[in-house]
Target: ATP-binding cassette domain-containing protein
Amino acid sequence: MISLNNVHKSYATGSNSLHVLKGIDLEIKQGEFVSIMGSSGSGKSTLLNILGILDNYDDGSYYLNGNLVKNMSEKHAAKLRNELVGFVFQSFNLISFKNAMENVALPLYYQGVNRKKRNKIALEYLDKLGLLPWAEHMPNELSGGQKQRVAIARSLISQPKIIFADEPTGALDTSTSYEVMEILKDINNEGITVILVTHEHDIAAMTQKIIRLKDGKIAEIIKNGDLKHFQEQYTKALETA
Model:
């Protein structure tokens, strides 16, 4: 599904260059639930943007569902995103002047689906996430958890194979964060790959595989929800950071 080999990424900073990713090797299979962890500046958001074809990389190779991503035309990249990928963001990214149903239906609008059909499908997804009574509410009338569920419904409406979530619980309280994670686990149980960035170790521990980045490199990969081991390693990493 996802295969990276020796991937590097740098950004120009004036007359200098900031080397953000330093030789990332990574394999993620269809149906996995993966978290990417790391401190600020570790490269986790950059990695997620590359995985979601929102940013390019400099060297190495990245294959998404058998497609080599490097130097891909924007038209081809957009087609691949539309076919395979859904996004969920910390700030929800809802359009303020559209109600919940219209926000969820937006991807189908760009696919040319007529209004009646896309609204019908949007209502189905809102119902699935327990938000049907709020379908006509505007974003400013929704709680943080409701906004994130609207965003998740929007990410699902195109029936993606992968959901990329960038700090999906970062703007939520603890209880609501766990509710959102349970929704993502349910989505994963339906066979959709879920890859999320988080700085919260308790959230990361709810996934099947934890990829911990440090200084642009993979410091370790923890599998099978080994929470005790992860907590020990996380504490050790904090002490030596």
